[in-house]
Amino acid sequence: MDDHRTGQIKKNDAFFEELFRNNTEIMLLIDPESLKIEDCNISACEFYGKSHDKMITSKITHFNCLSEEQLKKEITRAKNKERKQFYFKQLRANGEICDVEVRTSPVALEGRNYLLSIVTDISGLQLDSDLLRQENTLLEKRVAERIDDLNELNNQLIVAKAELEREMVFINALFESIPGYLYVYDETGKLIKWNKKHEEMTGYSAEELAHMTLDQWFEGEDLIRVMAAVEAVYKTGYGEVDANLITKGGVVRQIKSTTIRHFILTGIAEKRSNKAYYKHLIRQIK
Fold first, then answer.
1. Checking DSSP bridges between strand 252-262 and strand 277-284, what pairing results, if any?
2. What is the tens place of the pLDDT at every residue in 46-79?
3. Which whole-number Å values give the CA distances from 218 to 17, 157, 198, 243, 251, in the listed order?
4. What pTM was computed for the model?
5. Which of 57, 161, 177, 194 sits at a 20 to 30 Å CA gap from 27?
6. d(CA 162, CA 168)
7. Comparing C-alpha atoms, which of 160, 171, 162, 167 is closest to residue 6?
């Protein structure tokens, strides 16, 4: 993924954090089938008096004073868009029962259907009917805007994921088409990725290579030269060496190895892009 797209996804993650996680309104993401709280924001944890871990292992029935059967009927109405606004009595962790107004609307995230609920504590409020209707209209608008924002964010993430998958296919094909023995290792020397030609040259299977480090193919003076070239890569970003590589079967192959350093390698370690990786291109001489 290029820098622009990577930056866009980071921007979207930050946008979600601000929109949902750090929002001052009490927000819950509920599975309408199981009634389980799939996610909640900081304000919800503070209001109900439970940690995030405890919240997401709870059902909404743990807080609502209605029976589970009654609550399921209301959830079904919300899921079917028959009703958006509800008034409940809910129980907080300290035993306090609060009057709450709940605005709920269906929302689809990553292919699953949820209910997004915004909870407002109205305990002790004496609102006349006109003011209450105005507040209801405003809250409905805000819920709709947030659902639109979440749906747009979800669509952007789906598109970015599809683009990344297409890039991965292309990069893997390019990796295999390089006319040479190519492998990538990290700062500890552990192999991260290699092409099929490298397996054929060394005689090791993919499973064996996955547990190997590059110094296992060289001995004596060759090993010293190879590690000196690796040290040069650490310092300058480039290294080159001629050495004898020993295969699994004990065959000695003369090779010329060129190594470069890079920090972002799409398709190989996208979650480790803050680390340096080293790419070897080996040409067999004999």
1. antiparallel
2. 999 999 999 999 999 999 888 888 999 999 988 8
3. 50, 45, 15, 8, 12
4. 0.42
5. 161
6. 10
7. 160
Cα angle value 213/214/220 (rounded, 5°): 115
pLDDT tens digits, residue range 148-185? 888 888 888 888 888 888 887 877 777 777 767 777 87
11 is written with which tokens? 């921007």
DSSP codes of every residue in 233-252:
HHHHSEEEEEEEEE-TTS-E
Residues 6+ positions from 237 with CB-CB distance below 8 Å: 260, 261
| 277: its two tokens | 């990786």
Domains of the chain: 3-166 (3.30.450.20), 178-284 (3.30.450.20)
pLDDT band at residue 15 under the 50/70/90 scheme? low
